[in-house]
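To assess whether the prediction recovers the assembly geometry, we first specified each molecular entity separately, as shown.
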Amino acid sequence: MDLTLKIWRQANAQAKGKMVEYKVTGVSPDSSFFEMLDVLNQDLIEKGEDPVAFDHDCREGICGTCSLYINGRAHGPDSGVTTCQLHMRKFKDGDTIFIEPWRAKAFPIVKDLIVNRGAFDSIIQAGGYISVNTGGVPDANAIPIPKVNADAAMDAAACIGCGACVATCKNASAMLFVAAKVSQFANLPQGKIEAKRRVQNMVAEMDALGFGNCSNTYACEQECPKEISVSNIAKMNREFLSAKLCADVKDI
Amino acid sequence: MSNSLLNYASITKKISMSIIGLFLAAFLLVHLTINLMLLLDDGGESFRAAAEFMGKNPVIKVFEIILFSAFIIHILLGIILWFQNNAARPIGYQRANITKTSLMSKYMIHTGIIIFIFLGLHFIHFYFVKIGLVSGLMGEDGHPDFYNSALELFKQPLYVIIYIVSFLALGFHLNHAIQSGFQSLGWEHSKYTPAVKAISTIYALVISVGFTIIPLFILIAGK
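The predicted structure of the complete assembly is given in tokenized form:
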């Protein structure tokens, strides 16, 4: 496969970036998207040019490190996959591929296609955990949990925090990410103890970081590599409303 | 946490938007019922009676204030949300997003603006006449004759086109708005959500088709 790539190049956070065109030839349709970029980068290195910087780590779809907004879609033209799981057979010989970084005020560009997703860490620090301050490891199944709740919690916990929801949302809203993290705990008895405080603090942090508001276009659900459902957003809205209405004034 | 309007939590804004929006949507059905009386062949007797009831009943007077406040807050919140959402992505993409979403969910502000412009026209033609800001067609009793003013307006093809475009926009707005309002309120359930989505579409159709047939009927029947 011979391809034309248009890639966002930006030297650093302050620099002014632009789209730069590259040609890659002889790409195997069986190679992954990153292997194709590796070929390009090897070529650039041999020419003495600066290789394209992009985030990647596990390359098996579980770490949430990879990003890339490819031809108008987060993680490219496939559904339910991360960019590292995207294969070149999803493109045609002679295609022009636009590769851009995630775009959001809360995700500043570090270099080229790499953005700083530290905002997600701040949201987690605001309440995305369960406090276990003392004692040994509890016995498995000591707390009975209905299967349906355990499944819902596990589905929400599948979120790898890649930021595709923010990247694809027309409002750059982080609602699906925050909802997955809130819902993961709200479905379990262990998470109920801090539930009211958690949802209020995480939403306040999300708003303070400059993410947009949810307008229920459900684009996030379409692009989530883990196919997290927007029903988690409804659950978070319920949790938030009941926390705001019913939580004790001291419980914040 | 700050509680000023601009710093309301994002979800609080969405919940306010939903409650007010659903209230406005419910009001549309009341308005449609009265407007459909224009089609009755009684020389406007039922329409005038309904208009008089709406104009004089003290409960309706209170309701009118709530309704106006709802419109103003809904519009202001919509604008605030739009500005905040734009600010959340200062630099856009080179390639426009092609993710599949529901047809009109991305264009709520646009359909909203069309409805707002129509609302302005509607106020000039009716409400401002009622409160005496603008002069309009008067009846024999010295009160504004809304029955004949409506019929006169519907005889102007340009007005009818603006009217139909506005109600199409309203239909698209409602189709997303109602199910979205339930989602924002957290009313999501594996059993009921499909029904909520269906009702949302049906309601949008009833409102937009219901209002649209009135001028079409009057034009065709040459009332």
